[in-house]
Every structure is written in structure tokens, then in C-alpha cells.
Amino acid sequence: MEYRLLGRSGCVVSTFALGTMTFGAESDEEEASAQFGRYLEAGGNLIDTADVYAGGLSEEIVGRLVSARPASAREELVVATKGRFPIGRGPNNRGLSRKHLSAALDASLGRLRLDTIDLYQVHAYDPLTPLEETLRFLDDAVSAGKIRYVGLSNFTAWQLQKAVSLAELRGLSVPVSLQPQYNLLVRELEWEIIPACADAGLGLLPWSPLGGGWLTGKYKRDKRPSGRTRLGENPERGVEGYDRRNPLERTWEVLGALERVAKARGASMAQVALAWLVDRPTVSSVILGARTLAQLEDDLGAADLHLSAEETAELDGASAPYTADYPYGGPGTDQRAREIAGE
User: Fold this and answer.
1) Tell me, what DSSP letter sits at residue 3?
2) Residue 260 has pLDDT above 90, yes or no
């Protein structure tokens, strides 16, 4: 396992994180324990959870697994969780208000059996709460020793830039990371969000790196998945006739390139997809979310895999999202470019 800094902070994290959304849901405690042990054995140190995963059960399981480690081993772990989404029925049991986050943070500390959470991430933007209220609460929590670093999740570029600028202006704890969805099938954040992260010094912690299982190769063109998936599959729409703007057609193109690179490398498609992602600009750590130990074992095979420039170019070309001319296509990009040149 390799290690990198978490954004602009001095905190060191492994390039692959253990995502625990399945803990207590698709993975029982015995399975979770097996994944946890194998991940640590591979050299991983970043554990990611959230208060809403399995209704809080994920945090409880993580808390038991972490507390069972020797004190010296616990010190090596970086535990991350999130707050924002509903933990009850009342109108104040959601959002990024001081009232909700105060209760959510204390509850997470209790479930995790920790005095301090290493990385506390706000799970999404809240349009109803003044951003300064949220940032002041997080800064107070840092001062109180309840959290060490502040992170964001699912923020757009303008939202994260506003959060960083406001924190800097007010002298508050500045976010060090952003957790977005990012993979070979979801690259639109390269237009604005990743440049904003690079400018502000935020490290990326991508979730869903395998596109909900699509990038493992388990779905085939001649056997469509049942139901409507979040990647654009519509069972009522045929797949005949290529259209680069059709999300499903682009998916098949990406899977074809991924399969070619994987076969040439002697690696699984999942490993190649993870290797492509972990070496993208501003990525600090990629979150692995496995249901079974076997899936995690395969994912960990990407820990020492780095693609060549040619392999990366093939995947980049196949996965490039459709872009209109303006503002992110050629003409729009050219208008924002500048070179030093005379008459």
C-alpha cells in the first residue's frame, strides 16, 4: 500500500480507504471483521463511515473493531465519518445547523467509541443553513478536541470554494478534503470540481470508484441489468445504434477499453479501473466499498498497480464525457486559455 497526504494537511493516509457503507447492511459483523483485518494487513489506515450507514450500525461495528485493536495500533488509524442526513424524524434532525451537527457528532463519537474523530465530513451542502454557522461549529469542534480535520462531501465547485474562502477569511478550520462520486463513468467533475480542489488544496476521496459494479465487468451488453439504474439504463430503450451522448452507449465503450487493458495486463477490470482513478490529479485516497472479502481482496490487487501513459490514454479517450462547445468544449476552453506571445 502506498501513502499520501490528506489534501493540504500533514495527515498521511493510504491510497485506498476502507469504505464501510455495507457494514451492518449487506455485510454482517463477521464479514465486516474479516474485511477490516485484511485491509489493515494490506497496509491500509483510512476507515470511512457515516452516521446514516445502516442506521448507525456501521459506526457501531467500526467502533467495536477499532476499540479491539491495541492502543498503539489504534493510533495508526485515520477514522472518518460524516453528518448531515436525517437521524430522526424531527425537523432539526437533519442538515448542517449547529443544533443538528452537535447532536450528530456526539452520537457518532459514542457509536465509534472515540474521543476524537480524525476526519469529520459534512455529507452534503445545506441550502437552508448559513455556511458560516456550519464552519463555526466545525471550528469549535476542532478546538474542543472532538475532531481533527474538516472535510466536505458531495459539494459542487462553487460551494466548496465558498466554504474554503469563508473559512480562510474568518480564521476558521479550513476543509482539507472532498468526497465526491468519481470513476471512469462519472468524469464531469473534472470540468470544475477537481480544478477547484486543486486550487484550494483539497484532497479527493472518491466514492463509488467502480460505478456501482459496472466497472467490474459483471454487466454484459447482451444481458441488460433489471430495472432503471443510476447510470442511465432504461429497460424500455433499445441499445442498438451508437450515440456518444447516450450514457449507456458510452458505458459499453468504456467497458470495452477497460477489458482490453485488463487482459493485456493480466489484471481484473476492477483493478485497472481503480489504478486509473488512484493516479488522477488531487486524489488522496480511493474508497473501496466491498460486500464480501473476496471483492475486497480483488480490489486490493490495485494497490501496487500503475498504468502506463498509453493505457491511461486509451481509458481517457473511451471515458471522456460528451461536452458541448461551451463552456467546457474546445471554443469555451480556448477563450480561457492564454499563452505568452508577442505580435
Assistant:
1) E
2) yes
Q: Rounded to the nearest 5 degrees, what angle is found at the Cα of 63, between the Cα atoms of 59 and 69?
A: 150
> Kind of pairing, strands 3-5 and 12-14?
antiparallel
User: How far apart (Å, rounded) are the C-alpha atoms in residues 79 and 222?
Assistant: 42
Q: Are 6 and 13 in contact (CB under 8 A)?
A: yes
pLDDT over 70 percentage in the chain: 93
Quote the CA–CA distance of 48 and 282 in Å, as a whole number: 18
Alpha-carbon gap, residue 248 to 10, rounded angstroms? 41
| Contact between residue 77 and residue 114 where contact means Cβ atoms under 8 Å apart | no
Selecting among 3, 39, 53, 326, the annotated active-site residue is 53
CB hemisphere CA count around 325 (13 angstroms):
2
Whether 87 has a pLDDT exceeding 90, the answer reads: no
CATH numbers and ranges of domains, the chain: 3-215+271-306 (3.20.20.100)
Residues 6+ apart with CB under 8 A from 247: 231, 232
Q: What is the pTM assigned to this prediction?
A: 0.92
> In the annotation, is 53 catalytic?
yes
**Amino acid in position 193:** I
Instruction: For residue range 96-107, list pLDDT tens digits in order.
Output: 999 999 999 999
Q: Which residue type, as a one-letter code, is found at position 333?
A: T
Q: Max Cα separation, the chain?
A: 70
- pLDDT (tens digit per residue) in 167-210: 999 999 999 999 999 999 999 999 999 999 999 999 999 999 99
Distance CA 89, CA 106 (A): 18
Preceding amide of 327 cis, omega within 30? yes
CA 209 to chain centre: 7
Distance, CA of 331 to CA of 338 (rounded, Å): 13
Q: What confidence tens digit (pLDDT) does each residue in 202-238 have?
A: 999 999 999 999 999 998 877 655 544 434 444 333 3
